[in-house]
Amino acid sequence: MLKNTVTMSLLLAAVIVISGCQDSVESVMEDALACTEEVLDILKGVKDKATAEAALSDLEDLKGDMEAVKKRMEAITEDMKDASQEEQMEMLAEMMTFAEKGMAAEKAISAEKRRLQGIPGAEKVLKLVAELDMD
Predict the structure, then answer these.
(1) What does the pLDDT look like over 32-91, one tens digit per residue?
(2) Residue 42 sits in which domain range?
(3) What are the Cα distances from residue 79, in Å, to 8, 12, 16, 74, 126?
């Protein structure tokens, strides 16, 4: 689910600091968190069938951004193959701060998904959110 996406985004983004990629850890993490927070904002706006339909369009628009973040994470993963064990350990220590933010956002998204289960028309929104999972 999105939880896996955010966690992977945060973990892989931290690799940049160690590997010297052109992309930065902060940039990838900020973008991953921004996407997650945007999903949360969209879900919070769903109150009825009409707002559920509007949310579908917003989520479709966000899908491209999330796919771009995924590709950046994949590039970082590839670069990480040459990192030493020490560099990897430094990366893990660095990313713990960002993982907490991602987990908090995921917890809020889970609550919103439960809330949406009782709203007519929200079924399609929930399905699209599930499709946004990029693990």
Answers:
(1) 889 999 999 999 999 999 999 999 999 999 999 999 998 887 877 776 677 788 877 766
(2) 2-131
(3) 15, 10, 8, 9, 34
pTM: 0.76
Q: How big, in percent rounded to 5, are the helix, strand and coil portions of the chain?
A: 80, 0, 20
Whole-Å CA distances, 85 to 80, 97, 135: 10, 20, 24
In angstroms, the CA 72 to CA 116 distance is 31
Q: Are 36 and 105 in contact (CB under 8 A)?
A: yes
- In this predicted structure, what is the pLDDT of residue 128? 95
What domain count does the chain have? Answer: 1
DSSP letter for each residue of 89-114: HHHHHHHHHHHHHHHHHHHHHHHHHH
Using CA atoms, how far apart are residues 10 and 29, in angstroms rounded to an integer? 5
Say if residues 108 and 38 touch (Cβ distance below 8 Å): no
